[in-house]
Design brief:
Elements (H helix, E strand, L loop, with lengths): L2 H18 L9 E2 L5 E4 L2 E5 L12 H14 L7 H5 L2 H14 L3 E5 L2 H12 L5 E5 L4 H9 L3 E5 L4 H9 L6 E6 L11 H10 L3 E5 L14 H5 L8 E5 L9 E5 L1 H10 L1 H4 L6 H16 L1 H20 L11 E7 L1 H13 L2 E2 L2 E2 L9 E6 L6 H19 L1
Parallel strand pairs: 3-12, 5-6, 5-7, 7-8, 8-9
Antiparallel strand pairs: 1-2, 2-3, 4-10, 9-10, 11-14, 13-14
Helix pairs in contact: 2-12, 4-12, 5-6, 13-15, 14-15
This protein binds pyridoxal-5'-phosphate.
Length: 394
């Protein structure tokens, strides 16, 4: 038996187990731009699955900015930010992101995953502890697990459990980490109460606003702005650019000192190639649209209301959420998959989200809305879903 045979034999056993448990993942191939109407695996469908909340991923404006920057800069960035990868486009985007989120400075990262890993690892060390909400995004959990500090998870938004942990004596620093809008549930973290706890116990507080930036708050400035909490009480803010902004990348915003410390210490910043300048240019164009075209947020909010109202009438128990993430909890992963496949047969794409992305026993359809949806799209979704959901419950 060759090395390759041995490896394949072991991996095949692992894959078989996944398949049997309804946990096997497959990729779909999309042709054409993002938007509610997608061509997926060669067939047209109506999607409720992307994080393109404002409808900017397929917008011609950012694409034109990207082409123009590619003409001036070329496609590649050549090196890390600290060598020669940091261009005027990156610098301007950082200033615009800082202004948008109302913070002194911002620092670009290549992805949200890397921003979260980098920040947590830069801020805590052996002897410290990280306290995370159980339903935090995988990148935050991985950041906690892969750093040298002790990782403790508290039950979802259970502030008394968190307070008990904080009250237990600990010699090192404590870093509380939370999603601002929970990515698979759509609910909003109690950021004010978390800030109070961080003050009371001298802990640091980091929030990941991947699903709030662009969507919530005046001008789309994010969840802190929505809740009216000043930046000094939420001093470590992570935003991503691949969701409402429709492009790619992420940033951390905070004090000048925080940003300088991250430039020195965040390994996922230091040891990686800078995102290409055309990506930064596209994001600048998307940021202008996201800030200025408030009608996108207003339209999105109306679509969320319509979905919840229609789902309620049809007896579909959506989880409580006022954001564009609207999950329908199913429980069993095979059943979630069956429902998702039944919808696809009718040309509607809603992904079944299964463990380990969500806790065991909470497989769901994660419905997401975009400002680019039409009211009639919502009605079609609810009508189709109601037919198949009833059938599955019977
Ligand atoms: C998507 C997401 C990330 C990761 O961002 P990428 O730029 O896609 O790597 C981080 N945190 C949350 C809450 C997310 O939803």
């Amino acid at each position: 038996m060759t090395g390759a045979d041995r490896l394949d034999r072991d991996l095949e056993a692992l894959l078989r187990r996944r398949l049997e448990r309804g946990l096997y993942r497959r990729r779909r191939v999309v042709s054409g731009p993002q938007g509610p109407h997608l061509r997926v695996d060669g067939r047209d469908c109506l999607g409720f699955c992307s994080n393109d909340y404002l409808g900017l991923a397929g917008h011609p404006g950012p694409a034109a900015a990207m082409r123009e920057a590619a003409r001036r800069y070329g496609a590649g960035s050549g090196a890390a930010h600290l060598i020669v990868g940091h261009t005027a486009e990156h610098g301007a985007l950082e200033e615009e992101l800082a202004a948008w989120t109302g913070r002194p400075r911002a620092l670009l990262f290549s992805t949200g995953y890397m921003a979260n890993m980098g920040v947590i690892n830069a801020l805590v060390a052996e002897g410290d502890r990280v306290l995370e909400d159980r339903l935090n995004h995988a990148s935050l959990l991985d950041g906690g697990w892969l750093c040298r500090a002790r990782m403790q998870r508290y039950p979802h938004v259970d502030l008394s459990a968190l307070e008990r942990e904080l009250a237990a004596p600990d010699a090192g620093r404590s870093l509380i980490v939370t999603d601002a809008v929970f990515s698979m549930d759509g609910d909003i973290a109690p950021l004010g109460a978390l800030a109070d706890l961080s003050d009371r116990y001298g802990a640091d507080l980091m929030i990941d606003d991947a699903h709030g930036l662009g969507v919530l708050g005046p001008g789309g400035a994010g969840t802190p702005a929505e809740l009216g909490i000043c930046w000094q009480r939420l001093p470590i803010y992570v935003g991503t650019l691949g969701k409402a902004l429709g492009t790619f990348g992420a940033f951390v915003a905070g004090s000048n000192t925080l940003i300088e410390a991250l430039i020195q210490r965040a390994r996922t910043y230091v040891f990686t190639t800078a995102p290409p300048a055309p990506v930064a240019a596209a994001t600048r164009a998307a940021l202008r649209l996201a800030r200025e075209e408030s009608w996108r947020r207003e339209r999105l909010a109306r679509l969320v209301t319509r979905l919840r109202h229609e789902a309620d009438r049809a007896g579909l128990p959506l989880a409580p959420s006022r954001t564009p993430v609207q999950p329908l909890l199913i429980g069993d992963p095979r059943e979630a998959l069956r429902l998702s496949e039944a919808l696809l047969q009718e040309g509607i794409l809603v992904p079944a989200i299964r463990p380990p992305t969500v806790p065991a026993g909470t497989a769901r359809l994660r419905i997401t809305l975009s400002a680019a949806h039409e009211p009639g799209d919502i009605d079609r979704l609810v009508e189709t879903l109601a037919r198949h959901y009833r059938r599955s419950a019977a």
